[in-house]
Amino acid sequence: AVRLLRRPKSNTIVLSGLSGSGKTILFYQLRDGSSHQGTVTSMEPNEGTFILHSEAGKERKVKPVHIVDVPGHPRLLPKLDEFLPEAAGIVFVVDALEFLPNLRGVSEYLYDILTKASVVKKKVPVLICCNKTEKVTAHTKDFICKQLEKEIDKLRTSRSAVSDADVANDHTLGTPGKTFSFSQCTNKVSVGEASGLTSKIADVEQFIRDNVKP
């Protein structure tokens, strides 16, 4: 009876992040191992249920994954709310090449995800995926992690001034009175690297395997 009442574990992984970070290329790499010669900015979510390209042909039983690539255009951010309640994991893609000019926007988007009730209550794991690392001038994942923590720490202060009515659905981020770090989050936040163009997506694939169980 208990098993019947239990909802089946979600197999949905949500790819999120600002426009231009490389989410759609990662989607295609996961699906068929191709970058599709680069892509243009998406205005509609890319969705598919498939066995990861790297798992295809293996004899052991492999569970198909439902991947959703949510467009990063500011006007389309409400689309993200449609998919987060079903997420088994969230891959937050960051452009490691153009990171500093977009630091504020990236931090605000990530802050919004980490304070969503649907993410916090279910402790949905988040992978911060630093993409485009094949470029010599790309920032390291450690640098990106530290800068995001600093910026989110500032955001916590400014957002706490917002009236309670506006944040009824949100959760306070981090430990009050302490400098913010991702280790304080209720859900597990990890940082990885990827290069969508050169098919180096091992960190993303491992994150999916860890959170979508057979």
From TrEMBL:
It holds the Pfam family SRPRB. GO terms for cellular component: endoplasmic reticulum membrane; Golgi apparatus. One of its GO terms (molecular function) is GTPase activity. One of its GO terms (biological process) is protein localization to Golgi apparatus. It is a single-pass membrane protein. It comes from the Eukaryota. InterPro entries: P-loop_NTPase (IPR027417), Small_GTPase_ARF (IPR024156), SRP_receptor_beta_su (IPR019009). Keywords: Endoplasmic reticulum, ER-Golgi transport, GTP-binding, Lipoprotein, Membrane, Myristate, Nucleotide-binding, Protein transport, Receptor, Transmembrane, Transmembrane helix, Transport. It is found in: Endoplasmic reticulum membrane. Belongs to the small GTPase superfamily. Arf family. Belongs to the SRP receptor beta subunit family. This is Signal recognition particle receptor subunit beta. It comes from Linum tenue. The lineage of its organism: Eukaryota, Viridiplantae, Streptophyta, Embryophyta, Tracheophyta.
